[in-house]
Amino acid sequence: MNKNYVFSILSILLFSLGNAQNYKKPLVSAIKEADLRKDMYELAADQFWGREAGTLDELKVSMWLANKAKEAGMKPAGDNGTFFQFLICTGIR
Question: In the chain, where are the structural domains located?
């Protein structure tokens, strides 16, 4: 194997590890199993039906997720200051 190739791979790996998001321990330790379980059951509940793409049920679950992100203190990074990125699909062949 070429030494330059190995060096390049190692450099990319080290760069990636050094630039990975640093999560503060209190943030990670704030996640509780009970909260995850509650959210999982709520998301899987009948109120969201099947969450099929392009349906109102999908929109409801999208709004639910956006509200959860807001509650967690996340800042919107989507279109027009929202948590959403709107796509216009034209005829796909």
Answer: 24-93
- With tokens 């956006």, the residue in question is 66
Cα gap 8→74, rounded to integer Å: 35
pTM beyond 0.85: the answer is no
pLDDT at residue 79 tops 60: yes
- How many angstroms separate the CA atoms of 18 and 16, rounded? 5
- pLDDT value for 12: 66
47-64 exposure pattern, b = at least 16 Cβ within 10 A, e = fewer = eeeeeeeeeeeeeebeee
85 Cβ partners below 8 Å, 6+ apart?
78, 79
- The Cα 56–Cα 71 span in angstroms is 22
